Every structure is written in structure tokens, then in C-alpha cells.
């Protein structure tokens, strides 16, 4: 659970880790919004999971996640992915900036109709050639697996 301290240079309460002012965090939570930005790691996963559980306990109204991440720790991304799928409220994910690696894992946790991207969002898969090659092998074998291809701007949020 984050804790807050008074900053002598600013009257706003700030997260002790140097994060956003507490009132911004409160406004985001009251609007049922979560921002995931930067590297995915265990600390971020704990923060996001805590917020998801808190928002679920308040109501079953949809939750919005704004995602801009180059990726990071795979298991931390998996944790966030699993909790998005586990909680009762629908989660809408809006990709912006760069969504890559573990960020894509998080993006894919939302139902297909709840995934959006802003016009300049870029999606990047590491070793995409190997993924495409594997996908063609899977397709030839008649498996039901599928490969998701992204088109930036296809789900523009206004």
C-alpha cells in the first residue's frame, strides 16, 4: 500500500516514492482509470493489481487502463494480464506511444472489443519473424491457434 509524505516545496501530498501527487491518484481511481507507463516490473505489477482489486471492490463498472510500455519483466506482465482477466469488471485498454513485449501481453488481456489504440501507437513484438514462421507452421498443421496482428489507429479512442 503506498504511503504519502508532505513535500516542503509543494503543498500537495506526494507518493513517498516520488510519484504523482495523491490528489491525481485519487482522481484517476475515482474515474476508474489506471496508467501503466514505462518498464513493467514487480513493483508496478503489485501497484496495478492492488488498484484493480480496489476498483473491483467498489463496483463492477468498467475500468480503463492507459498503456505505454516498452515491456520488461515477463512474469510481472503475466501477473497484470492474469488479474485483468480474473476480476469481474470489464477492462478497456488504450494503447498509446510504444506497446511492446510484456506490454503487448497486458494489452491482449482485454477482450478484443475492449482494446483500443491512439493514432500514433506502435506495437512491437520481439523476434516477430520467428513468431510469423511459427504461425505459418501452426496454420499448416491445422491447429486452432491464431496470431494477432495489430493495426495502429484501428481502435481510435475519442
Radius of gyration based on Cα positions:
17 Å
How many helical stretches? 5
**Mean pLDDT across all amino acids:** 79
Query: What's the story with the biggest beta sheet?
Result: 5 strands, parallel
Structure description:
Helix 2 packs parallel to helix 3. Helices cover 37% and strands 24% of the residues. The protein has helices at 22-30, 42-58, 74-86, 102-107, 128-140; strands at residues 4-7, 10-15, 33-37, 63-69, 91-100, 115-117, 122-124. It is globular.
Compact summary:
This protein is of the alpha/beta class and 158 residues long.
Key features of this structure:
158 residues; alpha/beta; two-stranded antiparallel sheet; 7 strands
Walk me through the topology.
Elements: E1 4-7, E2 10-15, H1 22-30, E3 33-37, H2 42-58, E4 63-69, H3 74-86, E5 91-100, H4 102-107, E6 115-117, E7 122-124, H5 128-140
Helix pairs in contact: 2-3
Amino acid at each position: 500500500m503506498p504511503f504519502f509524505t508532505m513535500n516542503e516545496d509543494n503543498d500537495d501530498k506526494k507518493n513517498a516514492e516520488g510519484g504523482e501527487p495523491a490528489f491525481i491518484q485519487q482522481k484517476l481511481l475515482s474515474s476508474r482509470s489506471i496508467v501503466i507507463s514505462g518498464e513493467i516490473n514487480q513493483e508496478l505489477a503489485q501497484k496495478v493489481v492492488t488498484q484493480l482489486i480496489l476498483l473491483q471492490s467498489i463496483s463492477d463498472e468498467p475500468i480503463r487502463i492507459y498503456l505505454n510500455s516498452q515491456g520488461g519483466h515477463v512474469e510481472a506482465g503475466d501477473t497484470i494480464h492474469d488479474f485483468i482477466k480474473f476480476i469481474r469488471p470489464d477492462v478497456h485498454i488504450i494503447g498509446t506511444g510504444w506497446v511492446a513485449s510484456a506490454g503487448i501481453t497486458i494489452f491482449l488481456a482485454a477482450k478484443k472489443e475492449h482494446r483500443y489504440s491512439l493514432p500514433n501507437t506502435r506495437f512491437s513484438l520481439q523476434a516477430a519473424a520467428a513468431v510469423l514462421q511459427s504461425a505459418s507452421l501452426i496454420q499448416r498443421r491445422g491447429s486452432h491457434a491464431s496470431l494477432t496482428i495489430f493495426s495502429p489507429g484501428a481502435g481510435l479512442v475519442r
